[in-house]
Amino acid sequence: MGVIASRFEELDVWKNARELSKEIYVLSRDWRDFELKDQIRRAVVSISSNIAEGYDRGSKLDFIRFLYIARASGSEVRSQLYLALDLGYLNQKQFDILYSKIDMIVRQLASFIAKLKR
Which CATH architecture has domain 31-117? Predict the structure, then answer.
């Protein structure tokens, strides 16, 4: 595992997920829909958390499994962003920016998984 990075904090995908978590927390601060707010926050935090946990499991197979979980959480965030847009919690520009970032993270995870499986 150390060949990839010596610590999970060095992984670009983890850094991107961390930054997106902060952005979603800030943007959702005033949402009155507490269920959606809680769900999207838990899903976005799950991405960086699963990357970190999988990395430190010490097994490539475990890491891959946790990367799949992180990727699924990313897809969950994408879906929740649509609902936030539809309900008017996000404007189109905010949605587009966040969607672009989560889409990049999901693609990074898919690429990372493919690399580790080789």
Answer: Up-down Bundle (1.20)
